[in-house]
């Protein structure tokens, strides 16, 4: 006889994973690095205040890598045409960027940085 048990795993847990992407020491204040999480190219930022954020690494205007851009406060400036995004939300804040990029939850475990990628 087959037993049935309800799936008590919430939907977010089933469809997302936390991925270890870097050591805390890999990221300098006021800078960004590019990392891979699954098949995603993600930029991880550390502000001058030591806050961490993660967004898509590819600019929505072209194919520039945002980790090569200039981080100022909570904005990343694209290295190609100087469009900007808010790294907290992924919202485009300066043209020619108009389409948002994805932002990702981020957390620290010990000395490691983890990013949550949702399918
Ligand atoms: S490629 Fe980023 S602003 Fe054009």
Biggest beta-sheet profile? 4 strands, antiparallel
Low-confidence stretches: none
Distance between the termini: 34 Å
Q: H/E series, N to C?
A: HEEEEEEEEEEE
> Which distinct ligands sit in these coordinates?
FE2/S2 (inorganic) cluster
Q: Widest sheet: strand order? A: 2-3-4-9
Helix content: under 10%
Q: What general form does the structure show?
A: globular
Radius of gyration: 16 Å
Average pLDDT rating: 90
Number of helices: 1
Strand content: 35-45%
Total number of β-strand segments? 11
Question: What structural category do the secondary elements indicate?
Answer: mainly beta
Task: Summarize the structure in words.
This protein is mainly β. The chain is 4% helix and 44% strand. It is built from 1 helix and 11 strands; from the N terminus they run H-E-E-E-E-E-E-E-E-E-E-E. It has a 4-stranded antiparallel β-sheet, with no helix packed on it. A 4-stranded antiparallel β-sheet has the order 5-6-7-8, with no helix packed on it. Strand 6 and strand 7 form a beta hairpin. It is globular. The structure holds FE2/S2 (inorganic) cluster. FE2/S2 (inorganic) cluster binds next to loops. The site of FE2/S2 (inorganic) cluster has 10 residues, from loops.
